[in-house]
Protein: Pentacotripeptide-repeat region of PRORP domain-containing protein
Amino acid sequence: AISACEKGGQWQLAVLLLRRIVDMRATPNVISCSAAICACERAGQWGPALELLGRSRARGLEPDATACNSALSACRKSAFWGRALGLLGLMESKALAADVVTYDTVILACEQDEPLPRMVELLEGLHWAGRCRLEHCVVSSGTSKK
Structure:
């Protein structure tokens, strides 16, 4: 049902259904939490997306890359690059699988307010960590400005 809400653009209903699961003293799983976070992301609701991510972690559920990428995307859409960087740091500290989508989303979030030194640092770190080729990140970053 939560996935249907996500696909139908009903982020508030997705959040409500997730809360009802908790109210019934049942434990939501990673899939239902991710679907609710994705629903928030599609609506550009970064606050509820991050809140759901935090509550999931508080319940002992470690979010997957899809949930984290959705929360990052919500931050990007709302021009909250600082939150995006914080979430990336959280992912790295918890050894969550960040992928090219994760880093592209963070780079795009940073471009909105152009904290250039931080973007350069992020690109260099990605390159040296072997997480993505520097050329790919630079091309991705450059095409978003057009």
